[in-house]
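Input set for joint prediction.
Command: fold jointly, output tokens.
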Amino acid sequence: MRSRTPRRMGAMGLTALALLFLATGCGPEYIVLNPAGPVGREELHLIELSTILVLIVIVPVLALLAFIVIRYRDRPGNKAGYTPEWSESKWLEVVWWGIPIVIVGLLGYYTGKSTFSLVQPPEKDVKPITIQVTSLDWKWLFQYPDQKVATVNYCEIPTGVPVQFVLTSDAPMNSFWVPQLGGQEYTMPGMAMRLWLQADKPGSYFGTGANFTGKGFAHMHFQVVAKSDSEFNQWVQQVKSSSPALTMAGYNKLKQPGTMGTASYSSYPKNLFDKIVWKNGGRYMPDMMMDQGLDANMPGMSGMGSQTSKDSNTHS
Amino acid sequence: MALAEKHVTPGGSARASSIEYRDPHQSVRIMGFWLFLSTDMLLFACLFATYLVVRTHTDGGPTPHEIFDVPGFTIETFLLLTSSFTGGLATLAMRNGHKKQLMAWLIVTMLLGLGFVGLEIQEFVADVAEGATMQRSAFLSAFFTLVGTHGSHVSLGIGWMFITLLQVARRGITAVTARKVFIVNLYWHFLDVVWVFIFTVVYLSGVVM
Amino acid sequence: MPQWLHTFGDQYLMWNEGPLIWISDVLILLTGFGIVFVLTYFKKWGWLWREWLTTVDHKKIGIMYLIASLLMMFRGGVDALLLRTQLAVPNNHFLDAEHYDQIFTTHGTIMILFMAMPFIFALFNIAVPLQIGARDVAFPYLNAISFWLFFFGALLFNISFVFGGSPDAGWVSYPPLAGPEFDKGPGENFYLLALQISGIGSIGTGINFLATILKMRAPGMTLMRMPLFTWSVVATSLVIIFAFPALTVALALLLLDRIVGTHFFTMAHGGDPMMYINLFWIWGHPEVYIVIMPAFGVFSEVVATFSRKRVFGYTSMVASLLLISVISYFVWAHHFFTMGAGADVNTFFAVASMAVAIPTGVKIFNWLFTMFRGRIRLELPMLWTIAFVPCFAIGGATGVMLAAAPADYQYHNSYFLIAHFHQVLIGGVVFGMLAGMYYWWPKMFGFKLDDRLGRYAFWFFNIGFYVCFMPQYALGFMGMQRRMYVYPADMGWNTLNLVSTIGAYLMGIGFLFIVAQVLYSIKYGERDVTGDIWDGRTLEWSLPSPVPHYNFAVIPTVTSRDAWWEMKQTGQIQALRPSADEIAPIHMPKNSGRPFILSACFFVAGFGFVFEWFWLAALGLLGVVICLILRAFEYDDEYHIPPHEVVETESALGRL
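tokens >
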């Protein structure tokens, strides 16, 4: 066993890595690697690029380790060189300071480029739609400021249209993540943050909360349903005609800790989202509110956050 | 302490002219104290950062402009800056071997410090009476915490200086008591520097804002 | 049962939560009684007090740190197994949400703060004074205080399990979730106060070791002749000094929010939770370098010793340590790329985070080339070091991948991240600490740990590691996020989770082998009679094992790097052996019970604050003040060992 030790170690690491990437190449359950929109694709490209770049270092390291440990074992009769005092080599040092610097430089460049591009809408020619997302304990509220409808724990979007999600929280901070459409962004109380996503093809995409918010957190999944423009408009009309309205009292009830299924609302209180952001601290960041197209100058705050019974653990 | 007399880096002997550095056992402690002060400085830096982030977050409650009392904090500043000076005089007296002078300056320093703390408490009590409590808004939380942390440092410093004074009275100026006086004075000057920042960042800019 | 007892039992002892708690209570009581009984029966109370509780000897303090961290590794490991058991199958009912949340919180907190931190401090204490030729640290009394503050901090944290309730907001404890609005009850207070108390101790250790290394080196030991482990302690101490105050402030302000009602991080009244996150990570990221750099130091020592070769690129090794400690302050925001910072900020922190890989990569190559053209002996310390290289290289690589901000939008809080940081923390820190433990164990105790059992432990732990964590990378790509106590069955996550759980159990078996190895070796381990069992290179190996309590009878004079190795090569080891006429009286610090009592008072105060029993807190703080005043008036805290006693000890060791 002793003589095989190092080889096994190296082999194990390599195999694990290889298996990982083989496995990830296929299989629809690897949703991060099967993006359904331009944002997810851009991020996948960066994932691939960074993987290749780090492999440039990792593979030689593992190979060298295996080679060295095998060759320079302290065995009787080992004829390999032994230079106990040799401890400096300017050229070798230049190589292994230099190569990582080049790699980090390259990856840094593409990272910066991609970071800057992702704050822009993925498609400039199409008029985007906006969805305001509020994370609550433990559910997701979606409001459509243009369509004036609201949903809970699911949302529908038109395909091929950039969607501007504006995110906040009226509970501990969570994170809004729809892996197949693209990476996540936090929902933070008092802040309104923008996340651009877009679906290219119709489908139902898994969405989830990604930052721990307490007892009901594990149940905070939702579906993002992408459908063609006309089907989307049909859906909006249907919600408008057949769903109840969300009232202020209804919202305060929704806010109570608990989990629930999906729901749709034909309307919601005026400026609800703006008020949520404003009262949780958005008023101290008027620039941020205006950037997101919110009302940075809230008048009366009637009915908001007056009663927040924090202890109730009702699972509705 | 397990420090052999001879195996100390040369830095100690270069400053051997001052009594507090002469004994290598003591000079290593002075160095340790400098390291401690750097942690304390960072602690204050974090409190300052917090204050700067939330100083406009008044939640409709009292603003800096409304609660800061210009004559009050000016006198506080005057007292503390003067006490730092008298603390320096105490160190000088110690180096010259004048025990009585040293004790006298320490007492003056402590009295000035007490005056400072007294005024600060008065200021806090007045604020609270006007409804400006630390539970009222983030701004007030940060204000009371930052200034209060400094104030409790000063109070601690007064107690510490008193204890050092007792030791000087009993034992005279020795390598050990000299180091203790020196360190408590370092601490005192440090608090003075922190106050200068509080004075400008909190009070002056608050009044101007 | 009287009503008050019922209320007390449910409120503080959580008796209403069922058998898990009852069993724990019984076990703890039994263990407690057992310890008391053994100590009384063998009349060991006096011994415990004189030899351990009051000691200021760095070697004994190091041993206590080591024992504590192994115990905490057990507790944290049990937590991990409970978590993995819950996740073995979808929609499991083994734990409910509350318990799962508590357990992952305590797992993370314990492993970082009460396992990794004391483990590195154990090695600091054991090795540094011996490596630099000193008789103790600069401030032995403070060193004892640091240990006992850590100890009582850890005790306070662990008590929450059976008294009052554990924290449950994650080891990062972000408000508003951990704030007064959403988390009532004492659990979070336990977290805040336990970390605060042990954090004070950590700051003390950082100051102490920096002063020790800067001021107390043997004559001739210039900075660039210091062993690399000592260099890693310099870098670590600097980072501790500059990072821990931020944690102190973050914890203190959150505590104020919770028990005084201030509004630093609340949602209402202008609080700003983001401020906590910044403060926490300004400490939190440097913290991971605090725990990894000593491991780097260990590897540098072990690689050179077991390759019988000078460490390669010493200057680069020192430079990279210092570079890592500087960069560590400019990467904290990579923990929240997804919290709405601008593209410019994210790009800056992304590139800075990747840049850490440069000096780290340099170190890996230098270790490899230390082995190159050496003679590699696969003793246990070396085995763990070799295992470290691939593990840490892959962990580092995934770290670079995570640093690419837009890619992080997909990895953040997913199991990809979990796999990454376990790979660097286990593959780096735990492997490093174990290597260090095996390496210096003979120096501490005078015997070697059994090789065969150690190899079983090694293989179980290593194979278990890959089985446990490789699937988690894949789970991350499947969209599984952390901290879910149940997961749906239809996501394709089932098999990999089961595999991962099996791996965790294999690691658990590995740990049991380490325990068995220690117990077995106490009786049967190979005795170290030379003091230089590994054919070492640095000064600690010139001393007998275990080291006499004054360390060096005569302070050595150092003329080169790898001082002991050089002297062995040139046949001058007599230069490091004392001669009777050179031996002078030795100054030593006296033992003191006050560090223990002082820290116990901190514990009482902390306990009072946890339950907001302010009278108790005041009482504890009063005790602290009294201890400090008594210390101020204490002048007689040193003594001399007369030369004849040293001569006797040294002769008995055959060194004269």
